[in-house]
């Protein structure tokens, strides 16, 4: 049972969305803008955890889709000349220059090349500390990079939000959540927050996952079996992130997790808000445009093509592809092909824009299937294909 609206020419997207959700026990939403107008606004499923009502206005934690939202905040500053991608981070955040980081640029930080992919093993940052902004930012400012910045990439899954977020805070004097509200959510009328007000709590539908993800010991054993030295500092730090993951996901289902600002993962929104935000990055939406065409062109320039992982993780295949804070199309996340920019989120969330077709997409779900590490989420494939057909792509 799918509710909602599709414009003429996009009828196949409705049935394709239904097909993709056939075996999903959770709720899902899909919203598509084209040339600044809504052409798809659909929802289906329900909430098997709390039993709350599920519709197009329901809210969910967006996991790493949050990174694309935070990147948009950063590029608004670039657009206004308040932030330069080729400038050293320490120009805006002086304490960041400690421990050999004086030359790290804003571009390297945004594109997961800064060498700070996980907290140091001895920093004492676990799941509960993720809500402590000062502790996380101080740990990163004083940290020696895990590899020479700029020479390799590795996904900064937790740390990226504090790095980009503190940069935004230093430039604007506002937290990322406050800046997001003032410059994006309020002007566009979005149901989108980083730091959810308690008044919005009843609309939040819990996320859940039935799949069992490998724990720290299993990942360590797999790495060791691949000939990787698990006692290396980079590997120990990475395993710390693995150990934090499940507890962190549990935290993000709590009021404390909703109220905090964790820009790498706890934006709370619906598909309508995500699609509308991305639509306003590539064109005007009801009189609001967030980024100029020139800034979009710069923001989606590939930054990691040709780079490998740092040693000793250089034995692992590279599965990510980054621009300036946004993900680019790759086998795991094809989006609408080359030119697309956005971000997926653990468990199947997805939001992106494709300037060449004037399209912006938001997909939100509550069932964290865990498939995004091995290939495109099978729930996306039918409606992405139907959308491409509708666009003549």
From TrEMBL:
Name of one Pfam family that matches: Beta-lactamase
Record GO terms (molecular function): hydrolase activity
Hydrolase is among the record's keywords: yes
Source species, domain of life: Bacteria
Residue span(s) of domain Beta-lactamase-related: 22-373
Record key words, sorted: Hydrolase
Claim: Cell cycle is one of the keywords in the record: no
PANTHER family linked: BETA-LACTAMASE-RELATED, BETA-LACTAMASE-RELATED DOMAIN-CONTAINING PROTEIN
The protein, known as: Serine hydrolase domain-containing protein
Species per Swiss-Prot/TrEMBL record: Nocardia callitridis
């Amino acid at each position: 049972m799918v509710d909602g609206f599709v414009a003429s020419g996009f009828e196949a997207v409705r049935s394709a969305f239904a097909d993709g959700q056939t075996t999903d026990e959770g709720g899902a939403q899909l919203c598509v803008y084209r040339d600044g107008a809504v052409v798809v606004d659909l929802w289906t499923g329900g909430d098997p955890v709390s039993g709350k009502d599920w519709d197009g206005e329901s809210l969910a934690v967006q996991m790493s889709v949050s990174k694309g939202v935070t990147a948009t905040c950063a590029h608004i500053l670039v657009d206004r000349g308040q932030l330069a991608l080729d400038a050293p981070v320490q120009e805006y955040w002086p304490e960041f220059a400690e421990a050999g980081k004086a030359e790290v640029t804003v571009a390297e930080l945004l594109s997961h090349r800064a060498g700070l992919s996980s907290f140091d093993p001895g920093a004492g940052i676990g799941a509960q500390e993720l809500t402590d902004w000062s502790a996380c930012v101080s740990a990163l400012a004083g940290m020696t990079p895990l590899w020479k910045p700029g020479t390799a990439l590795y996904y900064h899954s937790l740390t990226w939000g504090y790095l980009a977020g503190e940069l935004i805070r230093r430039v604007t004097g506002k937290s990322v959540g406050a800046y997001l509200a003032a410059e994006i959510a309020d002007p566009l009328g979005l149901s989108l927050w980083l730091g959810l007000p308690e008044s919005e709590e009843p609309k939040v539908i819990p996320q859940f996952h039935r799949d069992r993800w490998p724990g720290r010991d299993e990942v360590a054993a797999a790495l060791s079996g691949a000939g990787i030295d698990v006692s290396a500092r980079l590997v120990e730090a990475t395993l710390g992130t693995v150990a934090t993951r499940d507890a962190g996901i549990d935290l993000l289902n709590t009021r404390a997790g909703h109220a905090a600002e964790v820009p790498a993962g706890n934006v709370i929104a619906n598909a309508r808000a995500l699609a509308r935000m991305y639509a306003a990055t590539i064109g005007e939406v009801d009189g609001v445009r967030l980024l100029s065409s020139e800034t979009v062109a710069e923001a989606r320039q590939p930054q990691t093509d040709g780079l490998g992982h740092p040693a000793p993780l250089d034995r692992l295949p590279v599965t990510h592809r980054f621009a300036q804070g946004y993900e680019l199309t790759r086998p795991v996340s094809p989006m609408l092909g080359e030119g697309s920019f956005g971000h997926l989120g653990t468990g199947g969330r997805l939001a992106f824009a494709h300037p060449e077709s004037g399209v912006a997409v938001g997909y939100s779900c509550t069932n964290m299937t865990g498939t995004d590490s091995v290939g495109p989420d099978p729930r996306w494939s039918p409606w992405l294909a139907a959308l491409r057909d509708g666009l003549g792509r």
